[in-house]
Amino acid sequence: MASDRRRGLTRREILKAAGVGALAAAAGGTPRHVRAQQKTLKIVQWSHFVPGYDKWFDGVFCKQWGAKHGVQVVVDHIAIGEINARAAAEVSAQRGHDLFMFLSPPAAYEKQVIDHTEIYQAVEKKWGKPIDLGHKSTFNPKTKKYFAFSDSYVPDPGNYRQDLWSQVGFPKGPDTWDDLRKGGKAIKDKFGNPVGIGLSQELDTNMAVRAVMWSFGASEQDAEGRVVINSPQTIEALKYMRALYKEAETGEVFTWDPSSNNRGILAGKLSFVANAISVTRTAEKENPEMSKKIQIVPALKGPVRRMAAEHVMDCYAIWRFAENPEGAKQFLVDYIDAFAEAFKASEFYNFPCFPKTVPDLKQQIANDPKGVPPDKYAVLGNVLEWATNVGYPGYATAAVDEAFNTFVLPTMFAKVARDELSPEDSAKAAEKELKRIWDKWKTA
Amino acid sequence: MAVTGAALERAAPRRRRRVSGATRLGVALFSPALVYIAALLGLPLVLAFLYSVGDVTVGSVGYEFVGLENFRSVVESPSFRRALVNSFVFTIASQVIVIVCANALALALRERFRGRGLVRFLILLPWVAPISLGAIGWKWILDSIYSVVNWVLAKMHLVNLFDPPMWLGRPALAMASVIAVHSWRMIPFSTVILLAGLTSIPKELPEAAAVDGAGFWRTHFEITLPMMRPIINVAVLFGVVFTFTDMTVVYILTRGGPYDSTQVLPSLAFQTGVLGSDLAEGAAISMFLVPILVAVAALMLRVAHRAEVV
User: Mean pLDDT over all residues of chain A?
Assistant: First the structure.
């Protein structure tokens, strides 16, 4: 036995030695004066609809900013549908990115984020006040806290097939919701192309039905945040949507996801959709002939006003548990300084919340090199006259956010369109649901 | 019988005896499973219960006990009541389809024929492939613009190409589509289980029945099925658990629409808790799954115990 041992180490001894070695390495094997690590700034945001924007943001702006401040900037891109789940996971783990970009106002996270007032103040010194849309999407009037910082928003105009609409007496497309109903019906009867205002549980429907309501003088809440959805104006809006669906649409609008209306109009099937300029930008790249046929109109006018929501609202939030909050604040201030470049890189998709950052915006969009004609996007020049925040005329609160993400309004409209409920009963049901949600968030 | 002092003295050293190596090995082998269950099942379950009786939102920092308030709020919601009914419809309908189809497939695959291995492989594919991929494939197959089903039906002059069926746009059709896709996914799993059960039936029994003049159907319903009952129970119970807790198919195909008509409890819990930011109410919705799953689990254990006894 003794001689065996002298022959070498047993397996048990090797394991012991390895374990002791590993422990020693972990405890004191590394130099005591570890080289100072370079600071990092971790950002998470959606994969932008315009790939060129991500290329500029990651490869140019972040690179230059990182080099200037001696910070390694790490940008993670996630799909639009993963944003909320990812945010919930980061809060739950109290660990994640320094800058988290939402595409809608993240009011529910107010207690988990820093007060962003300081960033607004720093930016305002140079670029003036933000637009009302940005303010109402990121400010809580009760706590007087900015729960996010909004750099930009995306307009939500109408996209119409000029070749079809000109044949039914609307060469410049529909201007009012009534035009949409009349012209849409005429086109469907004559050519078979339906209108594409969604009635499904998805983003674009959420925006479109709000536009209809506001244009008819209705809203889910008033300026003080009280639920006022059960109103004669809402009932009129519901009756209008039911008529539009029956006369000018098909059942496909109940099946849609956010990209369905894009696909529908690009495939030559739909005569009109309410969407961001993603429709026309895609056409310019993939189907130039169709691109010439699709033109843009501002939000449609209703009996009361012309109004639509922003298509998406960029909102950056800095978590309270962020490892580099100071870096994140500085990054946002510097990003706004460079917003003129961001506007160009996004191909006019992202409009500034601080208008002075792009002083020649109207001139730029009136001379678009890809648009046919070049002033195709000029109608977006007065976007602030008709674009507003989700929650209008009040603020974008956590209750508004829950109602938005649980599709209370699309459900109300869809049930009426399908004759499952009368307009009066559907408005009443939606009021009950909204009050239930509003009551919960009163104490949250 | 009275226990004497001497007997107690003799028993005492046995109680103090050191734990044997085999016992220690048994505990060591069993403990990872115990840790796994406690960490990944027990802890989330306890957390879900605590959330459901609290005021937790995705962004809240504290915890306040609110009793059954979330349950009261949930029950008042028409979406929840619809989701509860839909969960049962979804589970029962898909399990009926799965068991009937799996039975037929198992009978067919038991026979020897050229290419049986390939057929078995192809049938298993829906189960082994990630369900999210399969569901996305079905979403395109049933798409309102590019549906290949509608294209084929239109070519056969069975539907109007300009007014085809909206598979995901009408409540009844959407529910049927969701059930069909989920059944497509579950059939291979049940087929494998039933195939194992079929092959374990001694060949002499159907042969003897055939000699006695019993035809295929009589043999199937009076010999094969009764002998397979325990294994069918296992397949059904597993299927119920997988279906009742599944939200992938619903979420990818319809996201609960049109107007909440295909919403089931797991998808509604996700929509309310994570997307709607109200974790407490999302947890309360998911807690309604617990009594049903506990009953199914108890049944499964009973079936397993019976099978052991047999």
Answer: 90
With cut-offs at 50, 70 and 90, classify the pLDDT of residue B262. very high
For A:337-366, CB contacts with B below 8 A are none
Q: What is the CATH number of domain A39-153+311-359?
A: 3.40.190.10
ipTM above 0.90, yes or no: no
Whether the domain at A39-153+311-359 and the domain at A158-309+386-442 fall into the same CATH topology: yes
Q: CA-based Rg of chain B, rounded to a whole angstrom?
A: 26
In CATH, B79-267+289-309 is 1.10.3720.10: yes
Share of chain A residues as helix, strand and coil, in percent rounded to the nearest 5: 55, 15, 35
For testing contact with chain B, the best of A209, A255, A266, A420 (most B CBs within 10 A): A255
CA distance B81 to chain A (A): 13
Report the mean per-residue pLDDT for chain B.
87
**From the list B58, B254, B258, which residue is nearest A109 (CB)?**
B58
Residues near B2 by Cβ (< 8 Å), separated by ≥ 6?
none
Let me know: does B82 contact B260? Beta carbons within 8 Å: yes
Q: Where are the domains of chain B?
A: 79-267+289-309
Q: Which residue of A has its CA nearest to B171?
A: A254
CA distance A54 to chain B (A): 25
Nearest CA in chain B to A110: B59
* pLDDT reading at A77 higher than 50: yes
Domain boundary assignment for chain A:
39-153+311-359, 158-309+386-442
Is residue A227 less than 8 Å (CB to CB) from chain B?
Answer: no
Residue B177 sits at the chain A interface (C-beta within 8 Å):
no
| Inter-chain CB proximity B170 and A267 less than 8 Å | no
- Give how far Cα B1 sits from Cα of B4, B5, B7, B12, Å: 9, 13, 12, 19
Task: Inform me whether the pLDDT recorded for A70 exceeds 80.
Answer: yes
CATH 3.60.70.12 describes domain A158-309+386-442: no
Provide the token pair at A371. 């648009």
Residues 404-433 of chain A with CB under 8 A from chain B are 405-407, 410-411, 414-415, 418, 420, 429, 432-433
A255–B144: do the CB atoms touch at under 8 Å?
A: yes
Per-residue b or e along A149-174, where b marks 16 or more CB atoms closer than 10 Å to that residue's CB? bbbbbbbbbbbbbbbbbeebebeebb
Q: How do residues A382-426 score in pLDDT, each as one tens digit?
A: 999 999 999 999 999 999 999 999 999 999 999 999 999 999 999
Q: Which of A274, A162, A125, A253 is nearest to A208 (CA)?
A: A274
Residues A80-129 have pLDDT tens digits of 888 989 999 999 999 999 999 999 999 999 999 999 999 999 999 999 99
Contact (CB, 8 A) for A264 and A196: yes
- Quote the CA–CA distance of A67 and A430 in Å, as a whole number: 52
Lookup result for tokens 């989700």: A390
